[in-house]
Specification:
The protein contains eight helices and ten strands. It is globular and about 45 Å long. The structure holds zinc ion.
C-alpha cells in the first residue's frame, strides 16, 4: 500500500477516535456523580474509585444508587425491575400477586447476590414501587455506560398451562409470532398511563454499532440460557428475539428476561418463594459476571 493512502487512512482513523472520545466525554459530563459520604465531592463516572455512589441523571429519572465492587472501576450492570407504580404489569392467577412486585423482588435479590460477589457494580432502575417510562429505564443504562442491562419481567398467557422462563434479545425481526406479540405488549406497557409519552427513536447509534449491540446481547442471552439449564424450568427454545424498545434504547448489551408465567399456578407458586427465586438469581448472577468478563478481555 502507498504511504500516502496509508497516511490518509491513519488520519481518518484518528478523526474517528477523536469523535468517539468527544462523545464519551459528553456522556460523562452529562452524568456527574456525587460521593455518598461527601455530597460536595463531585467526580466523573470514570473517576469513581470506590465507595457506593449516587448518580444524578436529571429530574426525569432522579438519582440512581450504584453499589461498590471489591476493586475500583468494575463494570456497571443495570437491573431493571419491569413495570411499577400505576403500571402493575401482569396479574397473578391467584389474584394476590402482580408482575411489578415480583420483578422488584428479583432485581433486589440479584443486586444483593452480585454485590456480595463484588465483581461488578450494580444499579437498579427503580428501588421501590414507582412508575418509569421505558425510555427512562433505558436512559439509565445508556447514561451509566452499562456493560450489561437486564430487564426483568414475568410472563402471562391465555393458556394456563404455559410455563417456564424465556430470554429475549434485540433484533429487527422477531424470532416467532409470539415473541413479536410480547415485544408489542411490553413496548406499550404503561403507555396509556404516561402523561409524557416516550420520545421518538433516538437513532444515535450507527448501523454497525446497533449490529454490535445485537450480537453482544445475543451472546449474553445464550450465556443466561446455558447457566440456567437444569436449575429451573426454561421454555423450549428459550432464547428468542424481538424488537423491544427498552433494549434498543439502552444502546448497551441488553436482554429482557421473562422469569416464568404468573398466569400458571405452578410457576406463580414458585416465583413467590424467595428460595425458588434464589435458583434463578444464582444463574443470572453467574451469567452476567461471565459475560461482562468476556468483553473486558476483548
Ligand atoms: Zn412485563
Amino acid at each position: 500500500m502507498a504511504p500516502r493512502s496509508k497516511r490518509a487512512r491513519a488520519t481518518a482513523g484518528a478523526a474517528i477516535i477523536v469523535a468517539a472520545v468527544a462523545l464519551a466525554a459528553a456522556a460523562l459530563a452529562a452524568s456527574r456523580l456525587k460521593s455518598s459520604d461527601d455530597r460536595n465531592d463531585e467526580v466523573l463516572i470514570g473517576e469513581a474509585r470506590s465507595g457506593a455512589v449516587r448518580v444524578e441523571l436529571g429530574s426525569a429519572v432522579g438519582e440512581v444508587k450504584l453499589t461498590e465492587a471489591a476493586s475500583p472501576g468494575r463494570p456497571i450492570v443495570v437491573l431493571d425491575a419491569g413495570h411499577g407504580g400505576r403500571d402493575p404489569g401482569a396479574k397473578g392467577v391467584s389474584g394476590s400477586t402482580s408482575e411489578k412486585e415480583l420483578t422488584l423482588a428479583l432485581a433486589r435479590e440479584l443486586r444483593s447476590k452480585l454485590a456480595e460477589r463484588g465483581r461488578v457494580r450494580v444499579a437498579l432502575t427503580r428501588e421501590d414501587d414507582r412508575y418509569l417510562t421505558l425510555d427512562q429505564r433505558a436512559e439509565i443504562a445508556r447514561r451509566l455506560g452499562a456493560s450489561a442491562y437486564l430487564s426483568l419481567h414475568i410472563d402471562s398467557a391465555p393458556n394456563p398451562l404455559a410455563r417456564g422462563a424465556t430470554v429475549y434479545s434485540l433484533s429487527d425481526v422477531a424470532s416467532d409470532a409470539e415473541a413479536a406479540g410480547l415485544a408489542d405488549k411490553e413496548n406499550k406497557a404503561g403507555e396509556s398511563l404516561s402523561s409524557e409519552p416516550d420520545g421518538s427513536v433516538r437513532g444515535m447509534l450507527s448501523d454497525l454499532a446497533v449490529r454490535e449491540q445485537m450480537n453482544a446481547s445475543a451472546s449474553l442471552a445464550e450465556r443466561l440460557v446455558r447457566k440456567s439449564a437444569g436449575r429451573y424450568l426454561l421454555r423450549p427454545e428459550p432464547h428468542r428475539f424481538a424488537d423491544f424498545r427498552v433494549l434498543r434504547h439502552a444502546e448497551v448489551p441488553a436482554v429482557l428476561f421473562e422469569a416464568g408465567y404468573i398466569s400458571n399456578v405452578d410457576d406463580e407458586a414458585l416465583l413467590i418463594q424467595p428460595k425458588e427465586r434464589a435458583r434463578i438469581v444464582a444463574a443470572l448472577a453467574q451469567a452476567i459476571e461471565a459475560d461482562v468478563a468476556s468483553r473486558i478481555v476483548r
